[in-house]
Design goal:
Blueprint (H helix, E strand, L loop, with lengths): L5 E10 L2 E11 L4 E5 L6 H9 L3 E9 L2 E2 L5 H6 L2 E4 L11 H8 L6 H7 L1 H4 L11 H13 L5 E5 L7 H16 L3 E5 L3 H7 L2 E6 L2 E7 H4 L3 H9 L6 H5 L9
Parallel strand pairs: 3-8, 3-9, 6-7, 7-8
Antiparallel strand pairs: 1-2, 1-4, 4-5, 9-10
Adenosine-5'-triphosphate binds next to β2 and α1.
């Protein structure tokens, strides 16, 4: 079995001194997409912030390629190979696409890798990022996380406000990132799209893990997802007849 690129063991994370994440253990394998799901407020972003060093890890261990990082400053975690695409992260609108990528470049990262993944950006290298479409701007945001050649990339709801077709396009690239050997950890509101590209899934409820297993086990099973998100009894027939929740419709 491949050693995990990222390993969390009994991790608890506070937000403004309030405990939010409790005792979370999970791994992310290199060359695979690990999906984190959960309802609004379940603690997904707080968990990501804890991994990246933006929220306080109260207890537990986080290892990046075997090295403990839970006490490192965020910039040192980034240098150690952790990329983070934060929710609602935007571009520098008055800088060109190329300048946006250059400001994030460190070490030996190649812009050509980003242009290969996103030919749309290659054609617009010299255009100010503010003129790009929402999807293209998200490509720049992703590209900025990639130019420092991370081993692990955390991606928090990159699909916010984007059309489903654009989200599908971005998901293809997420799969390609894994194909390059990167361990991708993906939070995504369109659960079924994420489960298509992912290998392992973890569902958070009230700051704890309530499911860990293969994505295939949850794919298309809206009733199970609903129960995992919210707890309680199975959906009624009327619920089922109403179809998937709007947030689940790509
Ligand atoms: N800066 C903060 N200060 C205090 N509490 C916070 C802060 N940020 C988040 N929280 C609380 O932590 C809990 C988890 O929020 P978090 O944003 O991690 O959930 P989430 O699963 O990412 O939700 P969403 O899908 O809406 O982004 C919520 O109860 C939220 O109110």
């Amino acid at each position: 079995m491949t050693a995990p690129a990222l390993a969390l063991e009994g991790v608890s994370v506070d937000r403004a001194e309030v405990p939010v994440i409790h005792d979370v253990s999970l791994d992310a394998a290199p060359g695979a997409v690990t999906v984190i799901l959960g309802a609004n407020g379940a603690g997904k972003t707080t968990l990501m912030d804890g991994i990246a060093g933006l929220a306080k890890v109260k207890s537990g261990a986080i290892r990046l390629d075997g090295t403990p990082i839970e006490k490192m400053a965020p910039y040192r975690r980034a240098r150690a190979g952790l990329g983070y695409v934060e929710q609602a992260r935007t571009t520098f609108r008055t800088l060109t696409v190329e300048q946006n990528l250059l400001v994030s470049q460190s070490g030996g990262g190649e812009l050509s890798t980003v242009y290969k993944l996103f030919p749309e950006l290659d054609k617009r290298r010299n255009l100010q990022a503010g003129y790009l479409s929402g999807g293209e701007q998200q490509m720049v945001v992703l590209g900025r996380a990639l130019v420092s050649e991370p081993k692990v990339v955390l991606i928090d709801e990159m699909s916010l406000g984007l059309a489903p077709m654009v989200v599908r396009r971005l998901m293809t690239t997420i799969g390609e990132l894994a194909g390059m050997g990167i361990a991708v950890v993906l939070i995504e509101q369109f659960a079924n799209l994420a489960l298509e590209v992912g290998t392992q899934a973890h569902v958070l409820r009230k700051g704890g893990v309530v499911f860990s297993g293969p994505c295939a086990e949850l794919r298309g099973d809206d009733e199970r997802l609903h129960r995992l998100y919210f707890g309680g009894p199975p959906l009624t027939t009327a619920d089922r007849d109403a179809g998937p929740a709007e947030s689940e419709r790509p």
